[in-house]
Structure formats: C-alpha cells, structure tokens
TrEMBL record:
Residues 78-88 have a biased composition (Low complexity). SMART domains: DnaJ. Pfam families: DnaJ (PF00226). Residues 3-67 form the J domain. InterPro entries: DjlA_DnaK_co-chaperone (IPR050817), DnaJ_domain (IPR001623), J_dom_sf (IPR036869). It comes from Hymenobacter amundsenii. Residues 66-88 are annotated as: Disordered. This is J domain-containing protein. The lineage of its organism: Bacteria, Pseudomonadati, Bacteroidota, Cytophagia, Cytophagales. It comes from the Bacteria.
Amino acid sequence: MNTHYATLGLLANASPDTIRQAYRRLVLLTHPDRTPNPAAHQRFLAVNDAYDVLSNPTRRAAYDAACGGRRLPSPHHPASAGPDRSAAAARLPGIAPTDAYSLRGGVCPLPAVVTGGGRVQRDIRRATVR
C-alpha cells in the first residue's frame, strides 16, 4: 500500500466520516490484542499513521498537495533508495569489483541474508511467519 488512502481502502475524495469509519473498522481487525500476528501489528501501525494524516484537515491538504493525485512510492521502493550501492562499491579506490570476492577466498564478503541469497532468506522468512 503506497498511499494513506490505499492503506484505509479509500478514494482520495473520501469524506471525513468515511475516513473515520474505515479507520475504526481496520483498527478492530488489526489491533494487536485481537490479532497476535506481527504482520497485523505492522498493518495496525500503518492504519494509525494514515488516519493521523487524513483526519487532520491541514495535514491532509499538505499530503494531497505533495502527492499530486499520484501514488507515492513506499520508502522501501527502489526508486526512493538513493545512489546505487553496487555502483558505489565498484568505484572504491584501489579495489577492482572482482577483488571483493578474492579478499575472502572466493566467498562473498556479505552474508546471504544481506545479499538476498536464496535458502537462508527463505528459512528466516519461514521462521518469522510461524
């Protein structure tokens, strides 16, 4: 969910009463005391953040102006990530990109969790979901 409106399941022209009703419905569904799932807790926090902005007319107007009717990228979206880290690493003075692996005997210098590597990351995800 990229916008506060999408978080609450609303259109951008929603009335204050509609915003309040959607907030109350979602808070009951995602409250940590009712749903012990960590994903539900994160959703609960997102719903609260969205309601804090959209329930205040001044903050909502500023949000709408910044959004410009478009969907805002998530802070975790690659487009909002800043400079390419792999390109920056390739420009390290005195170290060729191929030397990074040879420094540790041909083993990737970063653990598989950081590099997004396969089985380790899946196992971690499974452990947190259970």
